[in-house]
Design goal:
Rossmann fold; alpha/beta; seven-stranded antiparallel sheet; 10 helices; eight-stranded mixed sheet; 2 domains; single chain; 15 strands; Elongation Factor Tu (Ef-tu), domain 3; 378 residues
Length: 378
């Protein structure tokens, strides 16, 4: 019986280790192609309005402004109006399309909160530059102004830097210089090693190089805009970087403030028990296991637990977070705001992950603009 129990325990342990390895590998996986998992069911023209028919999902029936990316190229921006087309379909009004795009029934499309594909689409006059990092050249967009305050915009895991353009608009309207940077293994920056994400640990070095670029060109104050994992990078820079004294404020959308909680939440999304996420932690946090998985070094998850280390924070922070975020739960933002009400302002939206702008762009923009204006005037 003891031998049978030992064998059973070993098998259980091996299964747990395998599941943890799988979860960790998926979390850090190289950036893959966009998934075009929706079909355009029809196109309606009503006067000067064009409407696209889509299957009803939580995304397609959500109020707000979104984008449809087409598998054969191009995009269509959708307005906030949602019209019912029976029990299983909705119609969304087109408010803008990329040049040359003609939506047709049967097109494969992808739903996205990334509203602008390029700075020009967002009405921004940007130049393409490269940031020299320790591992190669990172592509970036620079939007110039005469102010000595620069905004550095940091995208999230698996998202292109175009996703940050929603915030770049506000920074530009306030007269700030903006730098929209890439980083290693994000699909736009340098490709390094196994091309896996280190969850912000090594990527921080590349964003720090972007800050260095700004300082060499006259930046005296830095505002960091961080989205999801980009927010984790921003907070780490504000506390650990040599440039921390220059960082005057953080604007964080759906911030990763505790990686184990995020991993558990994404296990739940995938239909696994939340506790399964803990099985991935050793594969990330223990050096030999992390290297076996293809990472350059261990990921010190404690460095990103800012709720536990809230007393260390010193930079005024605005957090914008969706109450329906099932990828990065809002409870960590709520906990941080409760611990540091002197430093952290939290604005909640009826939205999912990094979709607060999309759910109510006017409120998002006004909140960020007012918060920044008050801070810049102080």
């Amino acid at each position: 019986m003891k031998r049978q129990l030992a064998i059973g325990g070993a098998m259980f342990g091996a299964a747990g280790a395998a599941l943890g390895w799988t979860i960790a590998r998926k979390l850090t996986a190289p950036v893959g192609p966009r998934r075009f998992n929706l079909t355009l069911r029809g196109v309606e023209v009503n006067g000067d309005r064009q409407l696209l028919l889509l299957d009803r999902t939580c995304d397609t029936e959500a109020p707000g402004t979104y984008n449809l990316w087409f598998e054969h190229g191009g995009w269509a921006q959708l307005g906030s109006e949602v019209e019912d087309r029976g029990q299983n379909q909705v119609a969304r009004v087109v408010v803008g399309v990329s040049p040359g795009l003609t939506p047709r029934e049967g097109d494969r499309v992808s739903w996205s909160g990334i509203y602008f594909a390029t700075p020009a689409d967002a009405g921004l006059d940007a130049s393409d530059i490269v940031i020299s990092t320790a591992v190669g050249h990172a592509h970036a967009w620079r939007i110039k102004s005469n102010m000595s305050t620069w905004a550095i915009h940091i995208h999230g895991l698996g998202s292109p830097r175009a996703g940050t353009l929603r915030g770049v608009q506000v920074a530009t309207e306030l007269g700030l210089n903006s730098l929209v940077t890439s980083y290693r293994n994000d699909g736009e920056g340098p490709a390094v090693g196994s091309v896996r994400s280190a969850l912000g640990i090594t990527e921080t070095e590349d964003v720090e190089a972007a800050i260095s670029y700004a300082v060499r060109r006259g930046a005296e104050r830095i505002i960091l805009f961080g989205w999801s994992m980009g927010a984790a990078i921003a907070v780490r820079l504000a506390q650990r970087s040599d440039y921390a004294p220059l960082i005057a404020g953080l604007v964080l959308d759906s911030p990763v403030l505790n990686w184990p909680e995020v991993i558990k939440a994404n296990c739940q999304r995938a239909g696994l028990p939340r506790s399964a996420g803990l099985l991935a932690v050793p594969w990330l946090a223990i050096g030999p296991l992390a290297r076996l998985m293809g990472l350059p070094a261990r990921v010190s998850l404690q460095e990103f637990d800012w709720v536990t280390h809230a007393e260390e924070l010193s930079v005024p922070t605005l957090i914008l977070h969706g109450a329906s975020d099932d990828s990065v739960p809002i409870k960590t933002s709520l906990a941080l705001a409760k611990k540091r009400p002197d430093l952290v302002q939290l604005e909640c939206f009826d939205a999912g992950h990094t979709l607060s702008w999309n759910s109510d762009a006017a409120r998002w923009r006004a909140t960020v603009s007012t918060w920044l204006s008050d801070g810049l005037a102080s």
